[in-house]
Specification:
This protein is globular. It starts with 6 loop residues before the first strand and ends in a 25-residue tail after the last helix. About 25% of the residues lie in helices and about 25% in strands. By secondary structure, the chain is of the alpha+beta class. It has four helices and five strands, in the order βααβββαβα.
């Protein structure tokens, strides 16, 4: 059984391999090493939750820092879910947004499944029907045809 009191918070983006491992383990899409190496240094604000020295949860804010920002990579290892770590990450991100982001900035995120309930606790609201989220995904050359 995991000790719920032995979690520490670190404000920085994870290392490339930690990032890649945590995304997949938490059920998010895989990212290539190249993609992670390019993207992680551009993190505006990163949060990691450690348990016994192991990164078990993370979240990031990316964007231009002034006009558009996006909350991404909220991931918690399955063995640590249900312990409030997602809420803890979002609390850290909300505090960053409050102190560092201009009032007119647009802060967005994509909520998978029921995760919207967590994000609503921090003031995020659905944008539809006013706007609809859209995405473009380049084909992965490693995917089967």
């Amino acid at each position: 059984m995991t000790d719920d009191t032995n979690y520490t918070t670190l404000h920085q983006a994870p290392a490339v391999e930690t990032y890649r491992r945590l995304r997949v383990a938490a059920g998010l899409s895989a990212k290539s090493g190249e993609a992670a190496e390019r993207g992680l240094p551009n993190t505006l604000f990163g949060v990691q939750i450690l348990h016994g020295g192991e990164v078990v949860a993370m979240g990031r804010v990316v964007g231009d820092g002034g006009t558009f920002l996006q909350v991404v990579d909220i991931a918690v290892l399955p063995s640590h879910q249900g312990r409030g770590l997602g809420r803890r990450i979002m609390g850290e991100i909300a505090a960053y947004i409050e102190r560092a982001v201009p009032a007119t900035a647009h802060v967005s995120l994509l909520a998978d499944g029921q995760a919207y309930r967590l994000y609503q606790q921090f003031g995020f609201q659905p944008t539809a029907p006013h706007s609809i989220g859209m995405a473009l995904r380049k084909p992965d050359p490693n995917d089967d045809p």
